UniProtKB/TrEMBL annotation, chains A, B, C, D, E, F:
<keyword id="KW-0378">Hydrolase</keyword>
<dbReference type="GO" id="GO:0033389">
    <property type="term" value="P:putrescine biosynthetic process from arginine, via agmatine"/>
</dbReference>
<feature type="binding site">
    <location>
        <position position="154"/>
    </location>
    <ligand>
        <name>Mn(2+)</name>
    </ligand>
</feature>
<keyword id="KW-0464">Manganese</keyword>
<dbReference type="Pfam" id="PF00491">
    <property type="entry name" value="Arginase"/>
</dbReference>
<protein>
    <submittedName>
        <fullName>Agmatinase</fullName>
        <ecNumber>3.5.3.11</ecNumber>
    </submittedName>
</protein>
<comment type="similarity">
    <text>Belongs to the arginase family. Agmatinase subfamily.</text>
</comment>
<dbReference type="InterPro" id="IPR006035">
    <property type="entry name" value="Ureohydrolase"/>
</dbReference>
<feature type="binding site">
    <location>
        <position position="244"/>
    </location>
    <ligand>
        <name>Mn(2+)</name>
    </ligand>
</feature>
<dbReference type="GO" id="GO:0046872">
    <property type="term" value="F:metal ion binding"/>
</dbReference>
<feature type="binding site">
    <location>
        <position position="130"/>
    </location>
    <ligand>
        <name>Mn(2+)</name>
    </ligand>
</feature>
<dbReference type="GO" id="GO:0008783">
    <property type="term" value="F:agmatinase activity"/>
</dbReference>
<keyword id="KW-0479">Metal-binding</keyword>
<dbReference type="InterPro" id="IPR005925">
    <property type="entry name" value="Agmatinase-rel"/>
</dbReference>
<dbReference type="InterPro" id="IPR023696">
    <property type="entry name" value="Ureohydrolase_dom_sf"/>
</dbReference>
<feature type="binding site">
    <location>
        <position position="156"/>
    </location>
    <ligand>
        <name>Mn(2+)</name>
    </ligand>
</feature>
<feature type="binding site">
    <location>
        <position position="152"/>
    </location>
    <ligand>
        <name>Mn(2+)</name>
    </ligand>
</feature>
Amino acid sequence: MSDPFFQPVSGMDLPRFAGVPTFMRLPHVAPDHARFGEVQIGLIGVPWDSGTTNRPGPRHGPRQLRDLSTMIRAQNGATGVRPFEAVNCADLGDVGPNPADIQDSMARITAFYDQVIAAGILPLTGGGDHLSSLPILRAVAKSGPVGMVHFDSHTDLFHSYFDGTMYTHGTPFRRAVEEGLLDPKRVVQIGIRGTAYDTEDRDFAKAEGIRIIPIEEYFARGPEDVMAEAREIVGTAPTYVSYDIDFVDPTFAPGTGTPEVGGPNSFEALQVARLLDGVNIVGADLVEVSPPFDQSGGTAFLGVSIMFEMLCVMAKAHAAAG
Amino acid sequence: MSDPFFQPVSGMDLPRFAGVPTFMRLPHVAPDHARFGEVQIGLIGVPWDSGTTNRPGPRHGPRQLRDLSTMIRAQNGATGVRPFEAVNCADLGDVGPNPADIQDSMARITAFYDQVIAAGILPLTGGGDHLSSLPILRAVAKSGPVGMVHFDSHTDLFHSYFDGTMYTHGTPFRRAVEEGLLDPKRVVQIGIRGTAYDTEDRDFAKAEGIRIIPIEEYFARGPEDVMAEAREIVGTAPTYVSYDIDFVDPTFAPGTGTPEVGGPNSFEALQVARLLDGVNIVGADLVEVSPPFDQSGGTAFLGVSIMFEMLCVMAKAHAAAG
Amino acid sequence: MSDPFFQPVSGMDLPRFAGVPTFMRLPHVAPDHARFGEVQIGLIGVPWDSGTTNRPGPRHGPRQLRDLSTMIRAQNGATGVRPFEAVNCADLGDVGPNPADIQDSMARITAFYDQVIAAGILPLTGGGDHLSSLPILRAVAKSGPVGMVHFDSHTDLFHSYFDGTMYTHGTPFRRAVEEGLLDPKRVVQIGIRGTAYDTEDRDFAKAEGIRIIPIEEYFARGPEDVMAEAREIVGTAPTYVSYDIDFVDPTFAPGTGTPEVGGPNSFEALQVARLLDGVNIVGADLVEVSPPFDQSGGTAFLGVSIMFEMLCVMAKAHAAAG
Amino acid sequence: MSDPFFQPVSGMDLPRFAGVPTFMRLPHVAPDHARFGEVQIGLIGVPWDSGTTNRPGPRHGPRQLRDLSTMIRAQNGATGVRPFEAVNCADLGDVGPNPADIQDSMARITAFYDQVIAAGILPLTGGGDHLSSLPILRAVAKSGPVGMVHFDSHTDLFHSYFDGTMYTHGTPFRRAVEEGLLDPKRVVQIGIRGTAYDTEDRDFAKAEGIRIIPIEEYFARGPEDVMAEAREIVGTAPTYVSYDIDFVDPTFAPGTGTPEVGGPNSFEALQVARLLDGVNIVGADLVEVSPPFDQSGGTAFLGVSIMFEMLCVMAKAHAAAG
Amino acid sequence: MSDPFFQPVSGMDLPRFAGVPTFMRLPHVAPDHARFGEVQIGLIGVPWDSGTTNRPGPRHGPRQLRDLSTMIRAQNGATGVRPFEAVNCADLGDVGPNPADIQDSMARITAFYDQVIAAGILPLTGGGDHLSSLPILRAVAKSGPVGMVHFDSHTDLFHSYFDGTMYTHGTPFRRAVEEGLLDPKRVVQIGIRGTAYDTEDRDFAKAEGIRIIPIEEYFARGPEDVMAEAREIVGTAPTYVSYDIDFVDPTFAPGTGTPEVGGPNSFEALQVARLLDGVNIVGADLVEVSPPFDQSGGTAFLGVSIMFEMLCVMAKAHAAAG
Amino acid sequence: MSDPFFQPVSGMDLPRFAGVPTFMRLPHVAPDHARFGEVQIGLIGVPWDSGTTNRPGPRHGPRQLRDLSTMIRAQNGATGVRPFEAVNCADLGDVGPNPADIQDSMARITAFYDQVIAAGILPLTGGGDHLSSLPILRAVAKSGPVGMVHFDSHTDLFHSYFDGTMYTHGTPFRRAVEEGLLDPKRVVQIGIRGTAYDTEDRDFAKAEGIRIIPIEEYFARGPEDVMAEAREIVGTAPTYVSYDIDFVDPTFAPGTGTPEVGGPNSFEALQVARLLDGVNIVGADLVEVSPPFDQSGGTAFLGVSIMFEMLCVMAKAHAAAG
C-alpha cells in the first residue's frame, strides 16, 4: 500500500494551478500502461452526451472535473480517511466516444469497462450524461444484476422519447432493468422532484419494486434517516452508485442540462455520499456536469468533492476487505 | 375542459429548446384572437421597469421567463395537479409599455387588464418591476378593494422618492392603499429584510393595519405556520398575490435589481406558493426578474417554477368552483 | 404586396424587448396556418446539432437568433431595400428534430422543407449545425443539382469521422455531391482556413472541380473581387447559399463550436452577403450559431444581421422576377 | 500650471487596482470644493438612462468608466501630450438624476452644467444615454448655437417615439436644433449605419443642412479624409463633440444598448478622436456605455481611452490659448 | 454625535448607482484629511493578495466591496441599530501595497494601521487575502496579545509552504501566535472544513489551546450555541474579528480563491456576525473576496453586508462605552 | 523522424473534448521520462505571475492554453508545414513556481530550463507573466547574449517600480540587457502603444540601441515590411522570440492583465509569427494570457494558435538544419 507512484501531487509542493490536470492529481495510467494491473480504484472520464434530449454539454464534463479536482487534498476533512494511502488509485483516462453514433459509443464504453473490470479495478466515473451509466452497467453487472443507490431529481425510467427512441438520458435504468443489469428490488432513487410529463416512469417503478423517495419525503425525514433506508434496501450485495449532479439544487449546481428547482444544498450533497459508508460498492458515477452552463466551475468543484466522498467510502471498504 | 387547442407542447414530442417560446408552450392568444373569450387563466408579460430607482432590467423579464418556461412540464410533481387539463390556459402576450413615459405606460397596462378582466380571465403576470402591480390592481380591483399576499424583501410602501416622485417600484402599494385598491387589513407582507432607510414605510403599515412578517420571524416559525396566518388574514374574499423574486435569497435569484442577503431558499420559494392553496386568487404576479443580472437564466427558471405553482393553485380552485 | 398581415412590428410602436419573439417580428405562420400558401420567403429554424463532433450548442441557435432578430428594423441601411414591403415574409417556426437519432432528424427536416418547396416558398434557415444543410438540400435540390456559394472556415467535405461515421457536420457537402444535390463545378467555398487534419477534403474538391478560396487569397484580393468570381462560378442557374458563422473571425462571432482564428470582420461579414446581389438564390442558411459559447448574444445578432442581408437580396430578386 | 494638487496618482506609486476610483485618478472636486474655481477641464459623470427605448444600462456607465480609467497613465503614447501638466483637470463628480422623472432629471443636469460653465470649466462628460447631451447642450450653448462633431451609428434626429414621446435617446439632436442649441449647418454625423425604420431622420437632416457620413463612405474614404471634412464643417467656432460608443463596432464595444454591426475598430475609435485636433471644443461627451452588457469592462476601457484622447486635444488647445 | 459630515449619502437623494463609490457612501477621510482625528470607526481597504498560493484576485476586493456597498442603507433591518448616527464613521481609503514585494507590503500595511490606532480609530478592513491580517494585527496588538473570533473554512495555521516559505495566506495566525499578537487560549476558529493536507495545523492548534469548531459541529449545534461559546472564549478582553468570506458556502460566495463546499448560507453568514454583540472588538476584517471569480458582485455584496453587521456591533459598543 | 510516440492524438480518432489535455495533444514527457533525450522541441508551461503589478491571472495560463490547444490539428493551413512529423515534439510539463517568493521562483525556472537546454531541446513556453522571460533567458543565453524579436504593447524596459522594486513584469528586458543576456543592438520591439508613464523606458532603449516600432508605424508600413526589418535586425545569430499576447488588440485578446486599446487583429497576430520564417530561433514564449479575464477561452485559443505558428517556423528550421 501507499506506493509513492500512486500518490497525488501535493499543493504544498506544486501549486494547484500548475501541472497537467489528471483526476485528483493522480498518475495517468491508461490500460496499456505497465502498472495498470496494480490499480485498485480507477477514475475514468466518459466525455459523452449524445443521449441528451435537452441542453447538451456533459461531454465537456470530464475535462472540467479534472481541472477542478486539483483543488482536492489528500485527506477527508470530516472522516479523516486518506484514500490514496489506503488503496492504489489512478486516473485511467477517458473513454473515446463517437459523438455522432450512439450505439457505437455505447459499445466503446462497455469495451473499456470490460477491461477495467477484468483487471479487478473498481471504476469511479466522471460523466457524461446519464445514458453513460447503461454501457457501464453492462460491464459492471456482467456476472449478474446489481443493486443501485441513485441520487437524482429524475427517475430516468422512461420507456422512450420522440415516438420510439429507446436510448436517451431519460431511459438508461428502464433499459438496465429490462436487460437484467439491475435488480429492481434493490434499487432506491432519492431526491425525485420537478414537474412531470405523466406517471409512466413511476408506474414502472411501482410495478418493478423500485423504491422512489421524492424530495418532499427527503426533506421531511432528513438525510440520515433516508440513507439508513437506502443502505437497508441495497444490503450487502454488490451495488452500483449513480449520482446525477441535478440531485443537488440548481443554485448549488447550475452546470447541468435539466435542472429542477428545490433540491438539497451542498452540505447535504456531500453528506449523502458519506452516508454510503457500509455499502458494497462495485462501481460509481457522477454524471450530468455540464460546463457550458457553469463557466465558474463551481458545479464541477462540487462534483469532484462528491466523487472524493464516494472514493473515500470505496477506499475504506476496499482496504478493510483487503 | 382539456381542449387540445389549450394544451402545451410536450417535450416528448418537440424538444424543449425548439419552437417559438410562449409561456409554458401554451397557445398565443392575443385579445384579438378568435378564442380569447374561452381563456380562463391568462399568462401575461409586462416588460416594463421605468419605476426602477436602482438597477434596471426587468423590462427584459417576460422574454426570459417565456424562454425558460419551456422547461415546465404538464404536471405538478408535488401535488399531482395538471393545470392545463383543469382549465383553459393561454399566453395572452405582452402589454406594450412606453419606456420613456411612466403615466402613459400605466394607462396602457390598465387598459390591457381591463380587457382581460372584462373577459372573465384570471391574470397571471410575469413582470416587469414592482410598479407594474399598481396599474394591474387598478383593473383587478375595479369593483372594490382586494386583499393581498405579498412575498418580498421590501414593503414597497414608501411615500415618495427624490423629493416627491410618487410612482416608483418602491411605492406601488402605498398608492394602492390610497386609491382604495387594497384593503390594508387583508394585506400580509412576508420576508421583509435588509438594511432600511428609516421606518416611514413600516409606520404606514402599522397605522393601516398591514401585517408585516420579517424574515427573522419567518425563519423562526417556518413556512407552514406563516402561510397559515397569511391565509387567515386574507380569508375567502378576493385576494391578489404579488411575488417579488427578491423575496428569495439573491444566491438563488441573483437576477434582480435590489437584492437583499439572507432570504429563503428555492425549495421554500416554491413551498410558500403551494401553501396559497385555498386562497381566493383573483390575480397574481411574479415581478422583478432582471435578466441582465443573471445571464444563466436560473432566476427566470425559478420565477416560472413559482408561476407554475401559483397557476396550479389557481387552476385547482377554478376547476373546483367551475 | 405589402399586405399588413406580413409586416413586422415596429420598435417605434412596441419596444424591441417586448412581445413573443418571432424571426424579425414577423407573423408566425406554421404550415397548417391559413395563410401559409401566401408566404413568399419563409424564415425557418432548425434547432439541431447532432452532427457536431466537437462542442455542441447550435440546437439553441434558432431561439437566440429569434430573440436578437427583434433588433432588426424594416429597411436596409446600406441598400435601401425594404424586404417586407417587397414580398410576403413569415416565420414558419422550427422543424422538430429528434436529438437522439440522426437519421430520423434528417427525415423530419427534409419532410418539412418538402412542404415549403411545394408551396413555392423560398426558405431562409437559421440553424443548427452544418449537417442541417444536407436534409434541406434534399428538398431544395429535388429537381436537380444546384450551385452553392459557401462561406466557411472549413470545407465540410470530409469522407467520414471516427472510423466510418458518414453523417457529421464535417461531411454534409461530400454527401450532397455524392447524392447529386450539388453541381460541384458550380460550388465555391470562401474563407477556408485554420489548422488541417490533412488534405483529404481539398483533394476531393480538386477532383470534383469545387473552387476553394482560402482566407489568404480572400484578404489579398478583397471581398468585391472574390464575390465577383463567386457570382461568375454559380452563374444564373439555381443556387443555394450556405453561410457558416465561423467564416467570420471568432472575436466577432465567438458563439460557435469550431472557431478558427484570423477571419473577416463584421463589416465584411455583411458585405459579402450583400454582394450576392444578382445570384439566383433558391434557398439560404446561416448555421453554427452556438449560444452557450456567447451568452451576450453578439454572435446571434451578427447572424440575424447576415440573414437580413441575404433576405434583402432574395426579396429584391423575387420582387423583380415577380 | 502643473499644480501637484491636480496631478493624478501614478501606477508606479499606487497600483492601479488600489484607491477610491475617480476619473483618471484625479482629485475629486465637487462644486462646493474650495478649489472648484481653479479647475480648467472637468470630468463629469451623468449616470442616467431614462431616455433609453431599448436595453437600459448606461446609468451604470460613469462608475465603470471611473473604475477602468485607473488604467490610464499621464502621457499620450501617440502624440506625447501630457494633459494633466498642461491644464488643471479634476473629477467633478456625478450629476444626481431622478431615474423616475425625465423632466426633473434634465433640469438637474442643466443646473449642474450651468455651474460648470459659469466657472469657466470645459466639461468632459461620461454618460449616460444619449438624451444626456440635450440638457448639457442647454448649458453649453446658452450663449448661442454651437457646431457639433457627432460620432454614432444613429442620427438621434427622430421626431418622437411611441405616438408622441418627444424626449428619448433617439431624439436629442432634433430637439437641440429646434431649441437653437445646435447650428445644423455646422453639424456632422459620422458612422451612421444599421437597419432603419424609415428616412424621417435623414430627411430632417437634409432639410436642415446636417451632413451625414454613412459608414460605407467612412470606410471608402478613411478616417483622415473624413475628419478633415469634419474639421472644415465645424470650422473655428465653438463646437461640441458627442461620441456615442456605438459608433464603434459592437465587437469592440459590446457594452451598449443599441449596437449596430459593421463599425470601426478600436484603433480608429481613438484615431478619429485624435483627429479632432484643431477643433474649438467647448464641451464633449462619451455616452451609451452600458456595463450590464459588458461585464469585462472592455467597453468602458475603450470609452475612457477615447475620453483621454479628447481630453488631450482639449488640454493642448486650452494650454495654447492660455 | 451624528455630525452631518459623517453621514452617508441616502439612496433616496442620490440613486445608489451614482457618485464616486466610497465604503457605504461615507466621506473619504485619508490620514492627511483635516477631520481624520474625529473618526471613530474607520473603513479601510487592503488591496493585496501576494500571499495567495492558489487563485489570486483579492487585490481587487476593496474596489468591488466599495462599489457594492452603495447598496447599504443607514439602518440595520434586524436590530434597528443606526451606526452612522451612533459614531463617526469614514472611509480612510486604501493602503498602498507593493504587489511584487511581500515584506515591503507588510511594512506599509502596519505603518498605515499604526496611524489609525494612534488616532484612536477602530479599524474595519475590507481585504485583501488573509495574510493581510498579520500586518494589521502587528498594529492592533502592539500593546499586547488579543483574542480572536475567526470565521473561515481553513485554520490558516500552517507552518510554511513550498519548502520553507513562511508568509502566505495559509500561515498568518501561526505567525501571529509566534509573534505574541494573539493569545491562543482566546482564539476560536469556526466553520473549518474541506479536504486537508494533513493535521499539522490542527496539531498546532491543539498544542496551543486554540479552539476549532469544525463545520459538522457547527451545523449540529447551530449558530446561536456556537457563538455563545465563542463569546465565552474571548471574554471581555480586547478581541480581533477575522472573517474569511470562504467561511460561507461557495455557492453563496463564489468570489474567493480557495472555496470549500458545504458551508453556512447567507442568512447564517449575517447571523454569526450579529451574534458578536457583546464582544470587545478592537478591529475586524472581511477578507478573501476575489472579484475575478464573481463578476456579478454577489460575493462582494454579501461581504459588505457582513461588514455592516460587524460595524453595527462595533458602533453600538462604542456608543455605549462613549 | 515521425516517430509514432511523438505524434499528437487526432480529433478524427478521439474527439477534441476528450482526454487528459497536454499541449497540442502531444505526449507528456517530463524531464525524468525515458524519452526526454529524444525531444527536439519542448512545450513548457510556466504558471507564474508574481511579477504582475496590475491584474493577476497568468498563473492560470498554461492550463487554459493546454485545454484550448486540443483544437489544434496537425497541419498548418497556410504554409502546409506538418511540424509533428518534422521534429520530435513533446509537452515537458510545467515548471513548479513558488507563488509567494519571486527569487525562489526564478531560480526554479532557470534550473528547469537549464535541463532543457542541456538536453538540446528548443523551448517553446506558454506563460505566465512577462517576468517569466528573464529566468528563461538566463538558461537560453547562458553561452552569450541573444537577439530578440519582441511583440508587445509595452517595452518592459523600466528600471523599477514602487520605489526600487527591480523584478516585475515591467522590467525583465532591462534586467536582461544589464545581465548580458540580450544584445540590445539585435533587439526589436513591435507594437508599442498605450498611455505612458513617461519616457524613461524609451530613453533606455534609445541609449542601448534597441529598435522600437510603435503601433502607428506598424499600421502605416504593414506587417510584411515591419517583419522584414525585424528579420534584418536579428540576422542569423541566435534569437529569442517573446510574444506578449497584449500585442494583439484587447478585443481579440481580452484575457490579459494590462491591455492597451488599438492593436493588430487576429489575422495579423498569426501573420507576424509566420513571418519569423528564417529567424534562428533558440527559444520562444507566449506570455500574459490571463484566463480569469477571458472565461470563454478565446484569448487562449488565439495564444495557442500563435504558439503553433512559432512551432511551425521552429520545426521547419530544425528539420532543414537537421
